[in-house]
Amino acid sequence: MSMADISRRRFIEAMGAVSTIGLVGLTGCGAQRASDTGSSAGEGGIADTITFAQGADPRGLDPAYVDDGESAKVMSNIYDTVLRFDVESTEVLPCLGEMPEISDDGLTYTFKIREGVKFHDGTDCDADAIVTSITRQLEPNRTEDMPYASFVFGSEEANTGIASIEAPDATTLVITLRSPSTPFIKNMAMTLAAPIVAPSAIEAGDSNENPVGSGPYKFVSWSKGENIVLEANEDYWDEERKPQTKNVIFRFITENSSRVTALNNGEVDIIDGIDASVVPTITDAGNKLFSEDGMNINYLAFRNDTGAFSTVEARRAFCQAVNVEEMVQSLYGEYAGVATSVMPLWMAPYDEDIKQTAYDPEAAKAAFADLGITSCTMLTYTNPRPYNSIGGQPLAEAIQGYLADAGVDMDIVSYDWTTYQTKVDTDAFDCCLYGWVGDNGDPDNFMNLLADENVSMNVGRYRSDAYNQLIQQGLSTPDGDERDAIYKQCEQMVADEMPWMLISHAKNLAAYAPSINNFYYHPTGVVHMELVTKTA
């Protein structure tokens, strides 16, 4: 188990991080399924259908082409990965492949691939299929609409990631890296980019709409704006994780209050994207609350390359203008903590001595006047996010109020989440609200965002050769004090240069009917439904 996993468990034990409100025993290997009102019961008193309500449609269902949590939650049930995470942590376990043999120079990884696994369409999920699924995301095959490809599999320019991948036979996968990579093992278990897509679906050209994987659930249908229907893969290869519920429906309900109403009325069985204001309504109705410290960061990104906040002085004035502690307490209550670092404080390495810019409204007002900044434009999203349960609009308006007190008129432009992810790439703005849910528990997965060339990762277009060099060092340095020191330097650079204004780390919040068993919201923000059941 990694230091991050150990630190997280110790922190939770020490601080009582799991809320006692409505929290019941959370065991098992994934989220549990519930049935729609009126659905028939399966064998042994288990309902046939569970409905999970989330705030938006996925952007797509091919892991090569998406970068959002809504997509990840659905895809985590359709696909397998070469390696996988444990149900409650980011400890890496075997999946399609056994744990690899690694060469002495740390460059060659040899995986023994499980025999006899089939994709949902009956084709072989063997080493050749894995090569096909990954190779399309490597240079020169990689396309601009593959947002996670460089993040997971590296790039030639940075001399990182995969140099070659081959299948000497159907049960052997050999991956050679350009340079040693400490997080590579964890990258192979991630829900974005890493899951293995059937070559038949790739060849058909519609894998983003009609996914074919080898996971515990098969894709049935997608009614845009309404729901996605999955059915159990009765031939699933993993006997310990065979799906226990026949059907899983992911339903899309934009408004937080409407999802709560649907849960309390029995229309759905599990919901996420809830905020502190609705918790009493949920628990008073007899439903259960899942609450645990999340692996995320909620932040405001400045355009570092152009606009009002392209200088450190302007970004400092902005950060001085906003009382982050007051704002977080007001908006999120006990369900989020003030972010004093990019990484959550339970993740190693956390350094309490690194300080963010302090609230100083008078200094902010004077600095804005000296800089001639009287207005700015913020882009935001309307949907709830795992790191921002209230949605972007209320958060933007709170920040707008602080800026007004400092003499700056902020114009807020809002979009639904799917549209928003395009707009931050194409439109002009001075700052925007964004966030991140950690994919694998490694510090590189957080700190590397600010070194990424892809706008969907590095939305503020921050560029620093010194920072990038630290990231490269961190990639190749083994876990330990030396590696921790590198990421502390990265954290200090963020505090000094302020490419982001750090806001909060949210708890993972979800709610479910009392008939639901074995539900767990993974630290990476996905829900594994195969062992979740609903008592009929």
From TrEMBL:
<comment type="similarity">
    <text>Belongs to the bacterial solute-binding protein 5 family.</text>
</comment>
<dbReference type="GO" id="GO:1904680">
    <property type="term" value="F:peptide transmembrane transporter activity"/>
</dbReference>
<feature type="domain" description="Solute-binding protein family 5">
    <location>
        <begin position="92"/>
        <end position="454"/>
    </location>
</feature>
<dbReference type="GO" id="GO:0042597">
    <property type="term" value="C:periplasmic space"/>
</dbReference>
<dbReference type="GO" id="GO:0043190">
    <property type="term" value="C:ATP-binding cassette (ABC) transporter complex"/>
</dbReference>
<dbReference type="GO" id="GO:0015833">
    <property type="term" value="P:peptide transport"/>
</dbReference>
<keyword id="KW-0813">Transport</keyword>
<protein>
    <submittedName>
        <fullName>ABC transporter substrate-binding protein</fullName>
    </submittedName>
</protein>
<dbReference type="InterPro" id="IPR030678">
    <property type="entry name" value="Peptide/Ni-bd"/>
</dbReference>
<dbReference type="InterPro" id="IPR006311">
    <property type="entry name" value="TAT_signal"/>
</dbReference>
<keyword id="KW-0732">Signal</keyword>
<dbReference type="InterPro" id="IPR039424">
    <property type="entry name" value="SBP_5"/>
</dbReference>
<dbReference type="InterPro" id="IPR023765">
    <property type="entry name" value="SBP_5_CS"/>
</dbReference>
<dbReference type="Pfam" id="PF00496">
    <property type="entry name" value="SBP_bac_5"/>
</dbReference>
<dbReference type="InterPro" id="IPR000914">
    <property type="entry name" value="SBP_5_dom"/>
</dbReference>
